[in-house]
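Subject: Sanity check before I submit

Could someone independently write out the structure tokens for this chain? I want to compare against mine line by line before I put it in a report. The sequence has 370 residues.
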Amino acid sequence: MKIALVVPGGVDRSGEERVIPALIALIGRLAKEHDVHVFATHQEVERGSWVLEGARIHNLGLPRTAWRAASVIVAEHRKRPFQVIHAFWAGGHAAVAVTIANLLRVPSVVHVAGGELVTLEDIGYGGCRTWSGRMLRRTVLRGATLVTGASRPILELVAERGIDARRLPLGVDLRRWPLRAPVRRMTAETVRLVHVASLNAVKDQPTLLRALRELADGGRRFDVDVVGEDTLGGKIQALAASLGLAPRIRFHGFLTQRALRPVVEAAHIAVISSRHEAGPLALLEAAAAGVPTVGTAVGHLAEWTPHAAVAVPRADPAALAAALAGLIDNEDLRLSVASEAMRSAAREDADYTARELNEIYQGLTGGVCA
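---
Independent answer below. Compare away.
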């Protein structure tokens, strides 16, 4: 089967930086069975092509126009027809993918993978903040043959628009990020927390820091590793200093998967403070490494709580601090949540995602593998 995947990015030629690990894992698995072509709209400025995990990457480069994207996809289709055109994220590139698929009479899939259907006006986040954004998402979702989403909260957002969607979690590659059983914390050991997320408004690190301040005021001893690219120009580091938390926090910036793994393994609890997530992958990776997550009720956190995660309301530092304290003070509970999280991540790993997607493709094409 020849498959077109249309993405904004996450498929850098290095395979290490500017990549989305779950997407890379999925591409590699699909490429073992199919002829996979990935069309990236925003990966690099210059037009280019390379092979990644057995798939051909077509970087569209500048100028980023719908016409250029459409022409490149159609040109590859003419060499040998695509059986499926699949867009990840329901943005402008997905509109191109769906439109071309309909013109070519090819089934299309759109995976809602981020904030496409969200409106958070106070932080300027979400694809539905404007009339044009809402119309674009409506066109994409209604034009697609099938819509998928990583978690139940995403499916609910799609359902609000009168469309049924299929749950398709983007799982962890357990070959590169293997399972590790939870490790009991020694009673006198300082608690190690880890927060893996870009420093940006939707990840809501101010809520995290204020929760940590409350945790410290409650007498808990802890250190925190914060891993992620800083897009806020040092504002989060400055807030940490003003709250008296600087001695407790290490800001690592971006880390490759190889460098990230030991940081996660060293943690006792992962923390997520996001106001919106489809997944997130950080939860799944922590779970696979035997580390439970406490965080806001988004994505898989909302699905897994209370047995495989501990979820609290968004933008509520007191609730987040109390939930963290609950796991810090009860080691048996921490281990129980970690064990169930690991089982959940193992059930829906990257192999599971690939099997589900192959089933979707076969259903859409009637099993045609030309």
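---
OP: Matches mine. For the report I'm noting this point. The CA atoms of residues 223 and 248 lie 5 Å apart.
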